[in-house]
Design brief:
Length: about 650
């Protein structure tokens, strides 16, 4: 993730010939050499760092104390101090000179070598110590900012409790469990793979996946995702996915993908460093050579000023803190239940102007409720409810079970029908004595010769002997946090929000009204939804689309930021750039807030570090800046910028 002098590299490392790394999911990403070697060098360097620091500081003090007594001994002390602390930096920097691969390590190496050449070994040793300590501090910062994501990647249990047909429970590898197998999740264990509760009830800690601090209840037929923690009673469950396809496994793959992405600001910093470093070297050479040649001073004075110029000009603050800011932003979003696949999407979320929503499963829960039910023949609706209940209770269709459950909740009396049969795709037909009842859609009425012109819109009509008696309108339940999220997004600067759905006009109208969305489009096929979104995108940029179904995948892929619901289809999740892990919309507001803060901090760090460096550079050329001030402009400003970048990870959004 970080370019050159990567904090994760500890002390820098020689360039590597390996440039690519292929992930398990088959996507190939280009990495810098630091990413490839972060493990091989940072751990080795960090392990001995306390001893190296003590030895280097002690030798530097020894050199200072002996400088007036024995010059050669003092020089040896300073040289040993420099090599013990910074040999990796010097190797990488010198190699960069010969390969024309310039970075801040090249700048530091030139400064250190030149300091010894002009008999200023104390400054050379001091610069090395502080620079390397700065890298170690940044290494600590990087590890700290990654902690939440590393914890997230450890949520997949390796083992599961398989219940055999004879009732015996054995512990097996989670990846050997097949869909349909029965598993037991004991108290305080993590759910090993996605499953459905068959029996038992308990409370589940879902925070690892959703960021939700309040445990949720698990009952029979409820879906559990891998990574949840059982907090109370043992549960008998049926596996609904393989271990590799579970929610936790998908999260792990997405985290790996997030590490390999780069944002435009980050790419700018990388390009900036490649141009900036050789430019600084040329300018430093001019500062060192031109004035003495023109008779404006002695060589030692101007070489020392050139060293100050080199040290203060090191772009560490930029090339380290900017990637750190975006990585911290990704980690903070993860902590709040939004998995962002890369820093480009952090930037786009911060500036998003158009957000389009699917309806079912996104703004609504997908669970039907009775919105209204009324009589059409002048009789009280209570007279018709027993027939609704008696006929529809014989069906398993979601609309039928919803109306039947409503009648049961109202305490409607039971009546017996002589015969009930299902008309596939239309509804139910029943008889009682000489009377024939129809209960279903307008299509069912039309098929039986009933004129549907002038009837109010409804999902389930009730008719008796060719006369329509009552109608019932069903609505998808709007998620509790949908309206609040929409209003919060408007307050954050989103200019337009629209709902695009394949559902009927009335259902779309009711959902849009309940969510405070003014613009909606209903009865859209996937290709129409995509075309309409692309048309809207011409007027607004960046754009985001949020959906959960397979039919949403094309639009999700088309958006600048495609967002999928965590409980949605695998196709939608794969096509998306970010995932709302819990299936709730509320974390989206947190993600936008965090993204805005991340981009703001990245820009502040750029302006702040460049301002300080220019000031010290100008002072250095005129001899008004010491080596200590130059070190502050490099290491000090870097540490300040890294601390500011790290603050993103601990950011708490205001409710």
């Amino acid at each position: 993730m970080m370019s050159k002098s990567n904090a994760q590299c500890g002390m820098g490392c020689p360039c590597c010939s390996q440039q690519h790394h292929t992930h398990e999911h088959g996507q190939q990403h280009e990495h810098t050499h630091e990413h490839n070697h972060e493990h091989s060098h940072s751990h080795a360097s960090s392990k001995w760092m306390p001893l190296r620091v003590l030895a280097s500081v002690a030798l530097c003090i020894g050199g200072f104390l002996t400088s007036d007594i024995q010059w050669v001994l003092s020089l040896c002390f300073y040289a040993a101090s420099t090599l013990i602390m910074g040999w990796e930096v010097l190797v990488c920097g010198i190699k960069g000179l010969f390969t024309l691969h310039f970075d801040e390590e090249t700048l530091m190496s030139i400064a250190v070598i030149a300091a010894f050449a002009i008999n200023e070994p104390f400054e050379g040793a001091l610069v090395t110590i502080l620079f390397c300590l700065g890298l170690q501090f940044e290494n600590f910062a990087a590890n700290r900012s990654q902690k939440n994501i590393q914890d997230l990647m450890a949520i997949c249990p390796d083992e599961a409790n398989l219940q055999k047909p004879n009732g015996e429970i054995v512990t097996v590898k989670a990846d050997t469990i097949q869909v349909g197998d029965t598993i037991v999740v004991r108290p305080f264990e993590r759910v090993p793979l996605d499953c459905k509760v068959l029996s038992g009830s308990s409370m589940m800690d879902t925070s690892a996946l959703t960021g939700e601090s309040v445990p949720v209840e698990a009952m029979p037929n409820d879906t559990l995702l891998s990574g949840y923690i059982n907090q109370k009673n043992a549960l008998i469950c049926q596996a609904t996915s393989l271990a590799g396809d579970s929610a936790a496994a998908k999260v792990v793959r997405m985290v790996e993908q997030a590490r390999s992405q780069k944002g435009t600001t980050e790419a700018f910093i990388t390009r900036f460093a490649r141009i900036y470093t050789p430019l600084v070297i040329v300018c430093a050479l001019l500062v060192a050579v031109l004035p003495p040649l023109l008779g404006l001073g002695d060589w030692n004075t101007w070489i020392m000023r050139a060293l100050v110029f080199l040290v203060s000009a090191c772009p560490c603050a930029l090339v380290i803190s900017i990637p750190m800011a975006f990585f911290s932003g990704i980690g903070a979003c993860s902590k709040h239940g939004v998995l962002v696949k890369g820093s480009p999407y952090i930037e786009k979320l911060a500036n998003v102007k158009l957000i389009a929503f699917d309806k079912t499963g996104t703004l609504t829960s997908g669970k039907l409720t009775v919105s209204s039910i009324d009589s059409l023949n002048g009789e009280p609706i209570e007279n018709h409810l027993p027939y609704y209940k008696a006929i529809l209770s014989q069906s398993t269709h979601p609309s039928a079970t919803t109306v039947a459950a409503f009648c049961k909740e109202q305490g409607v009396a039971d009546i017996a029908m002589d015969h009930v049969e299902e008309v596939v795709g239309c509804g139910m037909k029943g008889t009682k004595g000489q009377d024939t009842y129809l209960c279903g859609s307008a299509r069912l009425l039309a098929q039986n010769g009933i004129d549907t012109q002038g009837l109010p819109f409804a999902n389930v009509y009730l008719a008796k002997n060719q006369q329509v008696l009552a109608y019932c309108v069903l609505a998808d339940t709007v998620k509790p946090d949908a309206q609040k999220t929409i209003r919060s997004l408007y307050a954050l600067g989103v200019e337009k929000m629209v709902m695009l759905t394949g559902d009927n006009e009335e259902s779309a109208r009711l959902a849009a009204q309940a969510c405070s969305i003014d613009d909606y489009h209903a009865q859209l096929l996937p290709e129409h939804k995509l075309a309409l979104f692309q048309e809207l995108s011409k007027s607004y940029s960046p754009t985001a689309f949020i959906g959960d179904g397979i039919n949403d995948s094309p639009v999700i892929a088309s958006a600048d930021v495609g967002i999928s619901m965590g409980l949605g289809s695998a196709a939608a999740i794969e096509a998306s750039d970010a995932v709302l892990v819990s299936g709730s919309l509320a974390p989206l507001t947190d993600a936008v807030k965090i993204s805005k803060r991340t981009v703001g901090i990245a820009r502040f760090n750029i302006v702040f570090s460049i301002f300080i460096k220019i000031a010290v550079l100008v002072l250095g050329v005129f001899g008004a800046a010491s080596m200590g001030l130059a070190i502050f402009a490099d290491v000090g400003v870097t540490i300040i910028c890294v601390i500011i970048a790290m603050s993103i990870f601990g950011y708490r959004t205001r409710q």
